[in-house]
Amino acid sequence: MQEFKCFLTEEDGMGVVEVILIIVILISLALLFKEQITSLVNNILNKITKQAGKV
Q: Domain range holding 21?
């Protein structure tokens, strides 16, 4: 029982606030670079489609 109490009061590791901040930053970066990401993915998929016929 003592080990369980220590586990609950342990403050090591990432907290919920840090995880939420990381998610918010990633979403904002994705929205900021949406056009560049879309064009990059489209270019990659086009290359894959073109080279699939060669195989």
A: 14-52
Each residue of 1-55: pLDDT tens digit?
Answer: 788 777 777 766 667 888 899 999 999 999 999 999 999 999 999 999 999 877 6
The two structure tokens encoding residue 15: 């907290």
Whether residue 5 is contained in a domain is answered as no
- Is residue 2 domain-resident? no
Domain assignment present for residue 6? The answer is no
Contact between 17 and 24 under an 8 Å Cβ cutoff? The reply is: no
